[in-house]
């Protein structure tokens, strides 16, 4: 049954430092052009002095304005990010503080499924909205990947960018809604992309020259792709199974911007032409959970997604998880 | 409107090391009896070699058995913990792996509102269950606080314990359900209890003799209590406002085991006698998000909560948040 919710507004924040592929080449002491050719990322943004909560709050203010609302209309605030700003408290509390809502009482909590955090937050909170619990929910995905990159690991370090996207979700009365959604997790891939340290297993006090890589992002892209690619066809089948939809009915696929090469193969596997497949990795890199809403934002800005369009949000994440939502925008 | 869900099963895991108050006194070089007198905690458990995912999986197996189900009946797995095992991926993926469900596809994600994570997870996922999305959801709260304690800060280090609790949540047909629930966050208190480091703001690479306290738990208990105490009466009023209930109708209050002294004052403020107020802090300490489900487990085990009873889960968390659920058990 369709869940009558609507992305009423959307806003973004891009960090101050624009990093061109040439700069990455220099950082890695490789030939100019190498990182662009390998990753497909021409430029991305890295934070200078911004915190994740600062970026998220800036994006949120724009989303609220875009929705034609004010911050006082918001009655729930969710962080849908794969990274944390500090160990305690949760991101959402820090975002609320940054928004100047310290005394508002607006409930604030985090939903985390790494790169799928935005999708999972949207999926889960939609039930609370249709049941009448919350009226206007802010979901904020604000990611700083640059601090955790391992510059000795080319494969991942050439790929990621920072930034924030926020949406306001409300009940809809005009047909907008979630038509179907689905998520699967295969922890057989739990260690294919990870940061092993920083939690209770390897505490920061254990940081030293020998352990330092445990505190940086570590990814086996080929293995992730192999597992995802194998799981994808049946996942799509299951996602659509409660509907009469096929991929032909989807006006725009908004994929996680995992990597340029993976996206190319996935698009072909889905049987979707380039015009129906948002690819923004060239200008943003992989922004963890902010990637999917950033691609949605770009699609809306460019007029490639309009109200009433059927949009497929689709991605994989560390875990390894696959998630998808068919949204009538 | 009542949400027809039911805690079908519950299970716990207690770490291998039982730590008596005398041991804490020695650690802090204080007189024997001091930490017990100050905190009200006689004993608590600390992990020896256990990971959070190991503890959580052990608790989950017992919860599933208690529900009369098998792991293959579970169709969603949520980590409701305030601590993380590693930075990436989320706890829930690691729990799924530890449960041997690597190839199951069971969707796994985290909900985090620090000490209220269990309550928020229960509250939010209940909507998805009543809407038919998931049938049998595992919520696992597994916490290792001991690794993050600052032994130079008596106030918090004498208070905390480790451990895990899991529940199986299903749709109910027998009257069990959530009668009402409510949450409020006041980030004016965001820095009253925190671990500043470990995320993107202060990366573990910045760990050194000068910064080390940033990676340990830091709490101003008096300020937290003051703020919580001020907010409590109106919170309870709002929580009950959609019902005809008063505190007199509650068979058992299951509070977060924040601290012995705070609980005593809160109990009196609520106007609830000792027999209707679960206090287990003496034997477990404050187990972060595992505290409330552990107190519920004890109440069930001791025959103090029976099917059909009205139970109030109530707590505060870093953030600062207040959350409550009235559950017909």
TrEMBL record, chains A, B:
Record-level GO BP terms: fatty acid biosynthetic process; secondary metabolite biosynthetic process
Pfam family, one: ACP_syn_III_C
SUPFAM superfamilies: Thiolase-like (SSF53901)
Molecular function terms, GO-annotated: 3-oxoacyl-[acyl-carrier-protein] synthase activity
The Beta-ketoacyl-[acyl-carrier-protein] synthase III N-terminal domain, residue ranges: 109-186
PANTHER family associated with the record: 3-OXOACYL-[ACYL-CARRIER-PROTEIN] SYNTHASE 3, BETA-KETOACYL-[ACYL-CARRIER-PROTEIN] SYNTHASE III
Domain Beta-ketoacyl-[acyl-carrier-protein] synthase III C-terminal: 242-329
Highest taxon of source: Bacteria
Keyword entries, A-Z: Acyltransferase, Transferase
Protein name, entry field: 3-oxoacyl-ACP synthase
